Amino acid sequence: MAVHPYIVDQVRTPTIRSAYRAQFQEWIWMERAHGMMLVKQGLLPEEVWADIRSGLDRVSENLTEEDLDGNLVDIYNVITQRLYKEIGEETGCRLHIGRSRNDMYAACNRMQLRRDVLELTGKLLELMETVLKTAEENMDTVITYYTYGQPAQPGTYGHYLMLLFELFARDYIRFQAAYQNINRSPMGAATGIGTQFPLDPRYTAELLGFDSVIGHSLDAISGADCLLEAECAMAVMSTNLSKAAQDFMFWSSYECRFMDGDSSICSSSSIMPQKKNQICNEMIRIRSGHAIGILADSLALVRNTSLFPNNESNTDIFLIFENGLREALCSLGLLQVVIENTVIRKREAYAYTGNNFTGASTMAEYLAQEYQVPFTQTHHIVGGMIRRLMDADKMDIRYLTGKMMEEVSREVLGQAILMTDRQVQEMLDPVFCLNCKVTGGTPKSEDMAEIIRRGRETLKRLADWHDSCVQKLEEAKRRVS
Fold this sequence. Notes:
The protein is mainly alpha-helical. The protein has 3 domains: about 5-95, Orthogonal Bundle (Fumarase C, Chain B, domain 1), CATH 1.10.275.10; about 100-140 and about 155-190 and about 215-350 and about 450-460, Up-down Bundle (Fumarase C, Chain A, domain 2); about 360-425. It has 18 helices and 6 strands. It has helices at about 5-40, 45-60, 75-85, 90, 100-135, 155-180, 200-205, 215-220, 225-250, 280-300, 310-340, 345-355, 360-370, 375-390, 400-415, 420-425, 430-435, 445-480, and strands at about 140-145, 150-155, 185, 210-215, 260, 340-345. It has a two-stranded antiparallel ribbon with strand order 1-2. Strand 1 (about 140-145) and strand 2 form a beta hairpin. Helix 9 packs antiparallel against helix 10. The longest helix is centred in the first third of the chain and has 37 residues, at about 100-135. It is elongated and about 100 Å long.
């Protein structure tokens, strides 16, 4: 019975073309591995397999997107019919033993997804290397840290970048966890209850580069949760990228002015000649919203479906992921470009941090330890001094004096703390503040050296995992080529 032309043109042909672009080589790989397993198990004569293999080679080389026919329902039928055309149906049909489109789609979906995850983690490694290198170069570059949108305490650009490194390392680990669930073979499950043919699913899994075989036959073709897990990791990563982009935009604003992006990563205004817009950071923020939307789309798509095979879980959801992959890869590259082409105006950043009273909490801690009085009281002393400056509209550390310390401390403690103007003002110096910290993991130089050392170890460990996964897949593919 002929399929309605509208369904062919608007549904089947676009779907087949999307599957071709995303998975065609995975389908050929899976066909070859299944054939080799059938030969090993004595289910397919060597001479028949030689003809089939030759036909698959020609299909791989010659089938183009323009050849796709929506009347053939799906990518499986397109490849099968092209194989029949190359070697004849009587020979070509011998390949379809002990399998179903269900376990075949499940296998190719997982093969596509693991490839995508490795592409993402590879790009993430590049960004982490850039972050780590830039952090090493800016270990002592003082900047202002904020809480609730207000200047809070002194920090360093290197320390901030290593925060990004830690976030991205956890993003990477989330992708690793997803990969472990993704890289399991469903082949042999057929339509969910297995087959009477004496297949060797472990051998097929080995040829396809999978780490193991899914042990429950219905689970093998049922779930899309491994994809949702990857999308969750992608959404969290995109959120982290967006937060970093927001910070870079703020630090580059006129209000801060201590960060400056190169003109090559900014745009200008068509009417306001003074503008230097942080377009790359804006694009990162936009794409993070897309990643969250793609996760929401996928969750909505599968939430009311059955655990038995269906198009939503087995086909459409994996095609949705392709859009998110491109967005995430672009965002990773954009942030790398931003970091590589952004400079800190070190003198301005240091002066800004020193003059906005970000050392106030360190001063209160120092006074509490030096004079053996409760921190809450020294907090009141420092706060009282700053309040006087605010009331007098003189919010500048030059107006913070030893006399003011004496007067306010007498009010709070009942006794005076005596210091010179210079001693009072030096307690607000950013470097003094950072060097006072003793709890580890702080922005001071000694702690930063250890943070970066650990970062190097982490980067190597993650890169080694990535290289081993890529190598395993390359070796498996060579075996069936």
